[in-house]
Task: structure prediction
Amino acid sequence: MNFDFAYMLHLFPILLKYLSTTMEMSVLGMFFALILAILIANIRIFRIPILDPLSQLYISFFRGTPLLVQMFLFFYGLPQLFPSLVGIDAFTAAVIALTLHFTSYMAESIRAAILGIDRSQMEASLSIGMTTPQAMRRIILPQAARIAFPSLVNYFIDMIKSTSLAFTLGVAEIMAQAKLEAASSFKYLEAFLAVAIIYWVVVLIMTRVQIWAEKQLNKAYQR
Result:
């Protein structure tokens, strides 16, 4: 069977209509994951009783199990245990799974970045009357953000690609639509290649944004 280039071009405007769903899942997942990751990183750094071992268990579980399994657990499994969750929609379940999955990785990156800041800076902050939370917020975290930024962007890029698993829950995103188009035309190569190109272009754009942002952060740090 010959490759139908014209059909692949025809698919791009159809698939791009669903890019907003993909990006919405990614942005929401990254937003909530970043908040949770900072919280968990601090719990681990300050070794808060009870919460620290729980956070280690959380990280171990979500790093040790596949994202697809986690999506199934939240969408199909939890409603079985908690009837109040029966009405959870596929989009929400996917965002929750993405959030919790990537939080486990981001928390460790943020923790490493914070620990990479010289301890003398915390001591100096405390010596001038700052509380520990103030020192973390004003002095330590801004510097740690610069260190962790490249890895956090990489996690965001990975999250964008991981949204393709959401079609297994019935979320109408790019991959789901490509599967429908391929099934109706039997032109699987054209459909999935079109999807691959769209993801590739999005990642290329994000990579350029990352390079620009890193330069801006370095300039700000040098001032």
About this structure: The CA atoms of residues 118 and 158 lie 30 Å apart.
